[in-house]
Amino acid sequence: MAVEFSSLEELIDQFDGILLDAYGVFWNGNSLGLMPNAEKVFNRLMMANKHVGILSNSSQLAEKEKSKLEKWGIFASKHYHFYLTSGEIGKKALLDLKLPFPIVRKKFFPLFKPHPQFSSYYDLFKETSFTETFDPSEADFIYLNIPHIEGKDQTETVSFQEEIDRILPLKLPMICFNPDKVAFEGNPLNAVIRQGAIGSLYEKRGGEVHYTGKPYPQAFQIAIDQFEKVGIRREKIVMIGDNPETDIRGANHVNLASALITETGVMSFHLKEKGSSAFDMIDKSDTPKFYLKSFTL
Fold this sequence. Notes:
Blueprint: H1 8-14, E1 17-20, H2 29-32, H3 38-47, E2 51-56, H4 62-70, E3 82-85, H5 86-95, E4 107-111, H6 122-125, E5 131-132, E6 141-144, H7 161-167, E7 174-176, E8 182-185, E9 190-193, H8 195-204, E10 209-211, H9 217-228, E11 237-241, H10 244-253, E12 257-261, H11 265-274, H12 277-280, E13 290-292
Parallel strand pairs: 1-2, 1-11, 2-3, 4-5, 4-6, 6-7, 7-10, 11-12, 12-13
Antiparallel strand pairs: 8-9
């Protein structure tokens, strides 16, 4: 498949609202931080009077992610207008008691202890009606935390199979605030297992999983509402991401224009593994309107 690449300047000319994924677009993992030239691009977007939003599948609260960017010189209002995370959206559902299954005990069972490199899930449940229990038979649901073994990220889901087998017979619903199956961390970058992969494994074994974040419409609609508040119509918004299955699929489902980054993030790893045939393997529902090599001018 021959791919025709666009430039970021072309998108700046066509769209008033720019919706960005973080990891793999302007963020290169927690070890490497901000992508080279990302600050320059943010400055260009703001100088062009674009309304810039960030929609991330991070299960962290938005303030945590924003503070991380501040350490690299990227600030709300100066470089972008809003930051939405799956964790933030999920916390609101917890606060409002809007979960898609019966709530009796108001208790959750955390699958995996807090990851030492990330904020604890306690932040998500703080001020909610829920308390944790380490006895899954007492819980209304499973909260799927960032997977790890003794603080170390894993590269294969088989590492977690025993834990899944242990909780599966209880038939508890699971909530997942990060549908991404992998994240790219370390230096050099390495694909490590994230919540989406564990959720998928639980589903394949017959478990019930409820996801918050991309590619599901709710997250995109919340972002679209932010643009519409300042008078930007849906047809003038473009989603820029690196993952066809989350960023692009989700944008397509809500009729947003989409642009796929290919030289960084998820798509770059697909291309390294499969060469140009990776483009042919993109499902029709995951096909972007535009292709960009990177988040550079």
